[in-house]
Amino acid sequence: MSVVAAEVSKWAVRDVSFELPPGSVTALVGANGSGKSTLLNVLAGHLPPRSGHTSIAGRVAYVPQHKPMYKNFEVPDVLEFGRRMNTIWDHKRADDWLTRFKVPRKLQVGDLSGGQRTHVTLALALGSRPDVLLLDEPMSELDPLARRKVMRELLTEVSDNGMTLIFSTHVVAEIGGVADRLLLLSGGRLLVDGDTDELLEEHVLYTGPRDPEPPVEGPVVLAKHSQSQSQFLVRSGGTQVDEPWTARYVTLEELVVAHLERVA
Ligand SMILES: Nc1ncnc2c1ncn2[C@@H]1O[C@H](COP(=O)(O)OP(=O)(O)OP(=O)(O)O)[C@@H](O)[C@H]1O
What sequence ranges are listed for the domain ABC transporter (predicted)? Predict the structure, then answer.
């Protein structure tokens, strides 16, 4: 069963097709201009696809990258705006988020810090009780501790409420242990779409003496050769290899970078 399904093209996004199960957490990753914001806008219904279609079961909330908000609203006005704009509104859920992140209630949105504004937009989005929450680089204005806390709280929202979360990010190191699914875009095309645990089990890095061929069978993601050494990242799924070769699993960051390097 899928809660989000897409098969779309729009501007630089070309024939991107995927399905996401309910309650999943998907990281949307890719270089600048690879089409992440475009895809999220199309999913949110803000941009019509040039061709193809999307389908989302249930209510959608979308927090765009630049977090547009009325700057002269005070924080409580933003929640009141949320209450009036949404047929379903959970004031406590929104208000609790602001309390948790100590957002000053008396200030106008324009006087809040970038991180505090992020919390207000997240509170607004969560208050609408979305089945699917789309976040475009939600962490970009948060400090490292706040990033962790926000991610932890969002995961709690996912597990408590069965919400499906899709977020774009450039900080690949932060998606390990968070995202159960990876969508990797490059030049508007989907390079990788898979379960993060399965992807990590498949990708193995082999290091050994210089050789034009890897020591195992399987699709080679990346090959690098120095004068005396060769390295192959192979979707082989196994670390069994004869000496002098060595094999190890890679991190999600190494996996993403290797796929991006391959097409660079
Ligand atoms: N109105 C438009 N008409 C044509 N192309 C556009 C339009 N808007 C955006 N694009 C192009 O679509 C491509 C994808 O842009 P998008 O903002 O989706 O990338 P992104 O992956 O979110 O990038 P970043 O990481 O820098 O935020 C870019 O090359 C951009 O110039």
Answer: 3-212
